[in-house]
Model the fold of this input.
Amino acid sequence: MTAPVFVVDDFGTDGSGRHVLDGPEGRHAVSVKRLRAGETVVLTDGAGRRAEGEVTGTEGKDRLIVRLGDVVEEPVESPRLTVVQALPKGDRGELAVETMTEVGVDAVVPWSASRCVTQWRGERGLKSLGKWRATAREAGKQSRRTRFPEVADAATTRQVASLLAEADFAAVLHESGTEPLARVELPVSGTIVLVVGPEGGVSPEELELFAQAGAKPYRLGRSVLRTSTAGTAATAVLLARTGRWS
Done:
C-alpha cells in the first residue's frame, strides 16, 4: 500500500530536517491513523508539491514528527480535464466530486442549469460550495493525489458557454448524441471541458447555446446514467483515451 497523504501549508523543517505535522492533520495521523516511528508518509500542499518523510515519533495526541526528504513538484497533467457538473439533489453532488476526484479530474465547475431542482443561493450556496471543496480535498488525500482538483464558483449557463468556447475539445453528455465519447478524436494537450447535465436533462436552449460555443452532444453508451455518476464514467473514458492512464 502507498504511504498516507497529509496536507500542509508549508514544508518547513529545522536544521536537521525535522518537520512537525500538527493541527487537524497531525491529530488524524497520531490519533486516527496511529502512525508510529519508521512508517512513511507523504506531505503535500495539494497544488502539486510533495515530500516523502519517515515518522520518527509523536508528541501528545496531535503532533507527528517527520524526517522530511526533498520537496518535489509533480508536472501538471495534460490535457487538462474539467467537468461542468450540474447541481444534483441532496448529497449526490459530493458523491460526484468524490468519485471524479478519485478517478483523476483536474477541475469541477458547479453549474446552475435551468432544470436543476437544487439552486445555490446566499449562505446555502456558499455552504454547499464549501462542502464540494472539502470533499475534493479529502478525496484527493484518500486517493493519494498531490494535486487536488479545483472546484470553481457556481457558474451560469452563459459562463459555461464561455468556458466551452475556450476549450481545445468541448462536449456535452446527452442522449441525443450520435457519436460515442469513446471514439471521438481528442487533443494530446490543452484543455478538455465536459458538461454533465441535471437529472431533468440539458434543455434545448442550453444545448443550442453550447453548440454555438463548439460543444457537440456525445453519448456514453446505451444506458442513461445519473448525473452524479455520469461525470465519473466519462472522466474514466477520457483519461484512458488521452493516454493519461497509460
